[in-house]
Design goal:
This protein has 307 residues and is α/β, with parallel strands linked by helices. The protein has nine helices and 17 strands.
Length: 307
């Protein structure tokens, strides 16, 4: 079976942890333990989030007085792909002796006329005091939104059209290689209509939607979205909260999940199931093997046909 795994953005850096390299190196072993058993039995593509890492680099770049302008997000995203991909590849190499493993920096094609470019909504990086945010907005042309008593940077999040290197990933899978790619949704690029030349853009593509797009284009059998909760909850954080062991795309879309949390994961699972007819699932990292075998998480299955 061919499985595309979407790791949550906090897989290597948990909420509240120091962003030190040593912390992330220690956490990567937990990821490897969770995925190794599945990788022994199946073809696998691993995608991953990069929110904490991208936020750290973006904040450092925006505040660096030696720079005339912050590093663009496409280049910062490429940096995080390399760093996180290397950590995962090294750890998986030790856990899967003899298995070919590659961490591939990939680009995600987006439309230059995507409406998201006119309405930045994706939060990136730390919360700044209001005066610091105002200074960065004026001096660096950045956009901010209210976040508690401070302000947080927001950037466009255009729809993923396709992962540019999908054919390469497919060939690597055919050769028995485990592929780590599409980190942080991939490096966002547009393609010139006449020449096909790629240009990086100041945006962040949603990692789960990219994973769903990649899984569809690779004809994957299963999309596995791993996060820090055991399943999807109906009525999350309300008195009527209850776990969902299974759901249809329509049921997920009626769930009212927030954009900053379960919303993109639910939409990604719904899209994959609708477009391929195959199953997707959402659940906790440590239960990855159990989720694929139907013993944990939320299974997303096709809507029943209307008679």
């Amino acid at each position: 079976m061919r499985i595309v795994v979407a790791l949550g953005g906090n897989a290597l850096l948990h909420r509240g942890e120091s962003p030190d390299a040593a912390v992330q190196e220690a956490n990567v072993d937990r990821v490897t333990t969770a995925l190794a058993a599945l990788a022994h039995e199946h073809e696998m593509v691993i995608t991953h989030g990069n929110g904490p890492q991208l936020g750290l680099l973006a904040g450092e770049s925006a505040a660096d007085p030696a720079l005339s302008a912050p590093y663009p997000l496409d280049l910062l995203g490429a940096q995080t792909q390399g760093m996180i991909g290397s950590l995962l590849a090294r750890s998986l190499h030790d856990a899967l002796p003899g298995r070919r493993i590659v961490a591939l920096v990939t680009h995600t094609l987006v439309r230059a006329d995507d409406p998201a470019f006119d309405h930045p909504t994706k939060s990136v990086g730390q919360v700044y005091p209001r005066d610091v945010a105002s200074s960065l907005a004026e001096g660096r042309g950045l956009h901010f939104t209210a976040a508690g008593t401070g302000r947080r940077r927001v950037v466009p999040s255009p729809e993923p059209e396709r992962v540019w290197e999908t054919d390469t990933v497919h060939e690597l899978l055919r050769g028995g290689t485990l592929v780590i790619c599409a980190g942080g949704g991939g490096v966002p690029v547009t393609a010139d209509h006449d020449t096909g030349a790629l240009t990086g853009v100041e945006a962040v593509v949603d990692k789960d939607l990219t994973a769903a797009r990649l899984a569809e284009d690779l004809a994957a059998d299963f999309l596995l979205i791993l996060t820090d909760v055991p399943c999807v909850y109906a009525g999350y954080r309300t008195p009527g909260q209850r776990p969902l062991s299974d759901a249809t795309p329509a049921e997920l879309r009626r769930g009212g999940f927030t954009e900053g949390s379960m919303g993109p994961k639910a939409e990604a699972a719904a899209r994959f199931v609708e477009r391929t007819g195959g199953p997707a699932a959402i659940g906790a990292l440590d239960a990855a093997y159990e989720i694929v075998h139907g013993r944990s998480g939320t299974l997303v299955r096709p809507d029943l046909p209307v008679e």
